[in-house]
Design a protein that fits this description.
alpha+beta, globular, 518 residues, 5-stranded mixed beta sheet, single chain
Length: 518
């Protein structure tokens, strides 16, 4: 077991490898019926190709990774700036290219000749059909995770988009870089999730270096009133450049007065909705922490994906800002539940802090963000609970949790008294005075608890819990059917209705939904 842990890469190592791949890659818009053989033959003129794949987003695209960066320079040298008779071209060169040579098109094939990689999750009805065919709840949970999690290709595309944006940023700030953070890299992102990016200026040579004695040569710099003002100024310039010159970038919004200033835009060539921030180092540490927890035990990611899918289906979470529970808050709640098992599956953040070495030390704006990064130092306890048991226990745990007086803390790994009046209090693991669920109102928390009660009850019914004929939803598939949570309180007073009637009602709801969508 320890050998397996030693094989695991830190997030820093994974990001470094992905960034190097992205630097050797280009993104090419292709005809739908492109000939793979001719395409590869053309690319091979410029060097060996390590990997390539096709996907669709406003047309067909190919991501091509060369073995050497010199090949990228070669292919760019052979590219031409397009001419049009009615518009003027902004001569901004990038690694986003288009193929116009019709000899590459396979005219004998009327269908797209290349299998394109999926960039979004499958519809919920299709997922329910897949889950209904599985023989156990564990298989269903694993199936959902595999269907929703980011693919190798999608991850590569995200790093390539960051690399393309870096090419813009380094024109103003040489040695800077742009890194993805959040769900794109923490292991909990699903296909189609937004791409959060961080403009990292800390790697610029000469920053944060203590002066030596004797003569000191300094760069002359502009000075502004605060680091926030620096961030706003930098993002304003980068945002304007992305808007005016960034190929494939549309709908640029510069939201510079937010608590965390950002530039938001749509990258049409990849299909990603992008948020670019700077000076957001605590968020980077949160990303690293979630990645570590996900790597410690495969059940962590499986349970998070399942609970988050269940929550989105029932409107507990939403892509629209509001009083809903966020995906981050929900993920922390799953982690906390796993810490609170009689035999904990994952350790508390405080324990990870105790295992940290000198290289792990991290203080950001007065916040202690230190925790161990070496997997071999983390000794897990032997918990053998199945995914089935954990999902059932998760709903039971939060059905009875004392939200009215207790706060959730993954730093301590145990409940603590609420420090403020709020329906739901989840302590920010690093900025410990903050409540990451401060936006959640009482009615949304009540819905969450009621849905936990309903789901817990459903999983205890033999009609729900027993595999069917491969077409009738059961187990996890039943939990993703339309809810009748409004009737829960009445059912408690009158005595719960027969399970068969409950399932029949859910199936009728699904049938009506299918008819409306067809």
């Amino acid at each position: 077991m320890s050998d397996e842990k030693d094989m695991r890469k830190s997030l820093h190592a994974v990001q470094k490898e992905r960034q190097e791949q992205a630097e050797r890659s280009v993104l090419i818009s292709c005809p739908n019926r492109i000939s793979k053989k001719t395409f590869l033959k053309y690319l091979s003129r410029h060097g060996d190709v390590n990997k390539y794949f096709f996907y669709e987003s406003y047309g067909m695209y190919a991501v091509v990774e060369f073995a050497n960066q010199e090949s990228v320079a070669s292919i760019l040298e052979g590219a031409v700036i397009p001419n049009t008779s009615h518009e003027s071209t902004v001569p901004f060169k990038s690694r986003l290219l288009s193929i116009r040579n019709l000899s590459l098109v396979d005219s004998s094939n009327q269908q797209p000749s290349q299998q394109s990689q999926p960039q979004t999750t499958i519809p919920i009805n299709k997922l329910i059909e897949m889950l209904s065919k599985k023989d156990s709840l564990d298989q269903q949970i694993t199936c959902l995770t595999e269907a929703y999690q980011l693919t190798e290709e999608n991850s590569r595309l995200r790093f390539l988009v960051c690399s393309l944006l870096k090419d813009i940023a380094t024109a103003y700030f040489p040695e800077s870089t742009i890194r993805p953070y959040g769900s794109s890299v923490n292991g909990f992102g699903k296909l189609g999730c937004d791409l959060d990016m961080f403009l990292d200026l800390d790697g610029i040579n000469g920053r944060n270096i203590k002066p030596k004695t004797g003569l000191l040569l300094e760069y002359q710099m502009k000075w502004v009133v605060s680091e926030r003002a620096v961030t706003q100024s930098i993002l304003s310039v980068i945002g304007k450049c992305v808007e005016q010159f960034g190929p494939g970038c549309a709908g640029v919004q510069m939201i510079l007065n937010a608590r965390c200033p950002l530039v938001r835009f749509s990258h049409q060539a990849s299909g990603f909705q992008c948020d670019l921030t700077a000076n957001n180092r605590v968020a980077m540490k949160s990303t690293e922490l979630l990645y570590l927890y996900g790597e410690l035990d495969p059940r962590v990611r499986c349970l998070v994906f399942t609970v988050r899918c269940w929550a989105r289906v029932h409107g507990i979470t939403s892509s629209i800002p509001g009083a809903w529970i966020t995906n981050f808050s929900l993920t922390v709640m799953v982690l906390f539940f796993l810490q609170r098992r009689s035999v904990p599956i994952i350790p508390s953040l405080n324990h990870l802090r105790e295992l940290a070495g000198p290289a792990d030390e991290s203080m950001i704006e007065g916040n202690d963000c230190t925790f161990v990064s070496d997997f071999s130092k983390i000794q897990l306890q032997s918990n053998t609970e199945t995914l089935e048991q954990l999902l059932c226990e998760f709903f039971e745990f939060y059905s009875t949790f004392a939200f009215n007086k207790m706060s959730i803390s993954i730093r301590k790994g145990k409940e603590q008294n609420k420090p403020e009046v709020a329906p739901l209090h989840i302590q920010n693991p690093f900025e410990t005075s903050l409540n990451v669920s401060k936006n959640v109102n009482a009615s949304q928390l009540e819905r969450f608890v009621a849905l936990c009660q309903e789901s817990s009850w459903l999983l205890q019914q033999s009609e729900t819990f027993t595999p069917k004929n491969g077409t009738t939803p059961w187990g996890l598939a039943t939990l993703l059917l339309p809810s009748q949570v409004a009737g829960i309180r009445g059912r408690k007073k009158k005595g719960r209705e027969a399970a068969s009637e409950r399932i029949k009602s859910l199936l009728d709801s699904l049938k009506n939904t299918n008819q409306q969508q067809s």
